[in-house]
Amino acid sequence: MVFVFSVLFGAFIGIFFLWFSSKNAVKDYPELRIHVPEGAENSPEWQAWAQENGYKLNDKGVWAKGTGMLTSATEIRFEGNDMLVHMLVQECINFLLGINRFAINAPILAGKPVRMVKIKALNKLMAQWNLPEIVFGNPEDKVRIKN
User: Fold this and answer.
1) Which alpha helices (H) appear in 1-147, and where do they start and end?
2) Positive or negative torsion for Cα 36, 93, 24, 107
3) Using the 8-state DSSP alphabet, how is residue 141 labeled?
4) What is the pLDDT of residues 68-106, one digit of tens each?
5) By the 8 A CB rule, do 93 and 22 touch?
6) Mean pLDDT estimate for the chain
């Protein structure tokens, strides 16, 4: 009985740590914003990359991969006009009480191995567009959003 309680208590502490670190990442690293070429969302490079990596356009205009239920999902949005287009990339972790959205390259432990694989795939797209590689952020890169 003590063993079961210890395991449950440890699991609770682990989940709380992941929730707390991802909640802080929401404030410090809200999104990864990348300046991309004009017409990037309609480009053949993007369309091929999105299909190859399992991203689908939903009815909200967001390219998403995964559901976020007991796993992390990734959302990619394009915004801007013809002169300045940005691609916003966020990782979404669903804790049943709410979804925490933060930059895919935020330097936190939550889902880091999976996010590293996703960043590696994104870097292939960045290379096709002749853009710099995406790297995990540093504490100096904080944006800090006040509530």
Assistant:
1) 2-28, 44-52, 112-128
2) negative
3) G
4) 666 678 999 998 865 567 888 988 877 767 788 888 998
5) yes
6) 83
Positive or negative CA dihedral for 106, 109, 110, 114? Answer: positive
Q: Which of 2-6, 66-70, 107-111, 138-142 has the lowest mean pLDDT?
A: 138-142
| DSSP 8-state secondary structure symbol assigned to residue 40 | G
Q: What string of H, E and C letters represents the secondary structure of 71-110?
A: CEEEEEEEEECCCCEEEEEEEEEECCCCEEEEECCCCCCC
Map out the domains of the chain as residue ranges.
2-136
Q: Return d(Cα 56, Cα 103) in angstroms, integer.
A: 19
Q: 99-103 and 56-57: which strand pairing? A: unpaired
**Residues whose CB is less than 8 angstroms from the CB of residue 16 and which lie 6 or more positions away in sequence, other chains included:** none
Report the amino acid identity of residue 69: M
What the block records as the tokens of 89 is 């990339």
Q: Quick one: CA torsion of 119, 32, 113, 4, rounded to 10 degrees?
A: -160
- The CA distance from 115 to 137, in Å, is 12
**C-alpha 72, offset from chain centre:** 8
Q: Cα 91 from chain centroid? A: 2
